[in-house]
Amino acid sequence: MSAKTILRNSVARLIFQMGITRPERCSRGRLSIVTFHHVLPEADRQAYPYSGLVVTPEELDAFLTYFTVHFDCGALAAQHERYLSGETPARPLLALTFDDAQHDNYSFARPVLARHHVKASFFVPVVAVERQKLLWHDRLGFAVLTLLKQTHGGREQLMRILATAGLSASGPHSMVSNVVGAAKELTLEARLRLVEALAEAAGATPAPEFARLMTFEEIAWLAADGHEIGSHSMTHCLMPECDDRALAYEVAESRRMLQARTGQPIETFCYPNGNADARTARAVAQAGYRRAVTTTWGNNGQDADRFQLLRYDMVARRVQDSSGKFVPAQLAFRMSGFYPGLGS
Predict the structure, then answer these.
(1) Which of 114, 185, 292, 307 is deepest in the core (most CB within 10 A)?
(2) Which residue has the higher pLDDT, 290 or 10?
(3) Phi, psi of 213 (to 5 degrees)
(4) DSSP 3-state percent helix, strand, coil across the chain (nearest 5)
């Protein structure tokens, strides 16, 4: 562990003990929203292209243990309505959300939530679930991993495809994270061409079973448990790049289909990749939703735009010590508004 990390953790523990970063102080009178993606055992996390998007069931349990002690926890629709009504419970309000409708949310997150007696919101990309097809960033990620593992020319072929797309794989992160980050800067058509070219080059190697999405039947079971189901669009596109007609389809049709599939009102929208602007927010409001969430870091006061709500993205390694042990004080520091580089 670096000296900087040791110092940071020491400061986090000290100011937590002093009460400076405790949620009861920093989050009182505000609505906090946290988001998770994959919940997988460690062996599967190591095989997934974006390990930072994964928490293990044990890590999720640690997060929920902390949240249920310091916050009044629940699904976003219920928590947001309580907040708008002016309710001020003894512990600040917090909503739990899960993006992308991954099957592991059903198989691993669901029982952990049940043990803690809390409800959450699950955001569904409708077409991907309907077709049981990986989201574009997962298709890209698994293709890149496959090419990197090929002993005869895989890396060279990957570099040629990236060069053709005008992309570089260099950067501060892993190869696959750099590629997906660069791909998000392409036009929709160019991005889809890149994904198809990488998938074709990687061959017919199937993605691991753990990477599949939930079925609509499993989503309906979550709804029956009392969890909220929200829309994550039809195609998991980057919303601002859609024209007005496509935008209306992404928000309105996904709401209609999810209401038909679950039998419950669909009131919350989650922007894929967190990408939103004033035009997309208007489209979401016009489609009949009551709120929408971004991935911009922070919590929400009474002046928050209900169609561009802020969230805290939960990354396990950022709140652990060198042995992988959960450090509650570090999470409190990151969510306090005092952590350097993270606003609130």
Answers:
(1) 292
(2) 290
(3) -95, 165
(4) 50, 10, 35
Burial class (CB in 10 A: 0-12, 13-18, 19+), 28: middle
- In angstroms, rounded to a whole number, what is the distance separating the alpha carbons of residues 267 and 264? 9
Confidence label for 1 from pLDDT (cuts 50, 70 and 90): low
Domain at 3-133+210-335: CATH code: 3.20.20.370
**Alpha-carbon distance values, 154 to 150, 158, 165, 173, 226 (Å):** 5, 6, 17, 20, 47
Which contiguous run of DSSP H or E holds residue 34?
A: strand 31-36
324 DSSP 8-state letter? S
The length of the chain, given as a count of residues: 344
pLDDT tens-digit readout, 103-121: 999 999 999 999 999 999 9
Q: Contact at 8 Å (CB) between 146 and 205?
A: yes
Terminal Cα-to-Cα distance of the chain (whole angstroms) = 27
For the chain, give every domain's residue range: 3-133+210-335, 136-206
Tell me the average pLDDT across 227-241. 95
- Beta-carbon neighbour count of residue 7 at 10 Å? 10
Quote the CA–CA distance of 247 and 243 in Å, as a whole number: 6
The answer to whether the beta carbons of residues 232 and 123 sit under 8 Å apart is: yes
| Whole-prediction pTM | 0.94
Query: Cα-flanking dihedrals φ and ψ of residue 96, to 5°?
Result: -105, 130
Q: Mean pLDDT over residues 226-233, rounded?
A: 97
